[in-house]
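Q: Predict the bound structure with phosphoribosyl ATP.
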Amino acid sequence: MPESILSQLDQVLAARKSASPDSSYVASLHHKGLNKILEKVGEEAFETVIAAKDAQVSGDNSKVIYETADLWFHSLVMLSELGESHQPILDELARRFGLSGLDEKAARDK
Ligand SMILES: N=c1c2ncn([C@@H]3O[C@H](COP(=O)(O)OP(=O)(O)OP(=O)(O)O)[C@@H](O)[C@H]3O)c2ncn1[C@@H]1O[C@H](COP(=O)(O)O)[C@@H](O)[C@H]1O
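A: Predicted complex:
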């Protein structure tokens, strides 16, 4: 089975941690450090929200798809900077699968 794009990206992002900041965008982000990466995640989250509001009016989802990809990508860079891969996130979603959000909240609020 071909490797998933998330696995392929994880490998590239990890390799970029030791690359020269002049040689690549991801290497430049790792070089600038976590605060710069978090700034980008916040920026992309905001742009995604605006694109979703626009899509609601126009009925065209192309911009929100593009911005969500930017958000996911920068979130992967954040995880990579912290020494994580995408896998624990998929595992957490899998753990939650089938667990009603309402039931989970009720158990938490007890
Ligand atoms: N998926 C992506 C990806 N998505 C978005 N981006 C970059 O993320 C940046 C988004 O920032 P903005 O939209 O804010 O644009 P900007 O104004 O250029 O950014 P700033 O100057 O504000 O930081 C752009 O430069 C995009 O090109 C990405 N850059 C890289 N990748 C992947 O990461 C791999 C490694 O990339 P390099 O490190 O550049 O080789 C690539 O082969 C791709 O697979």
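A: The mean pLDDT is 94.
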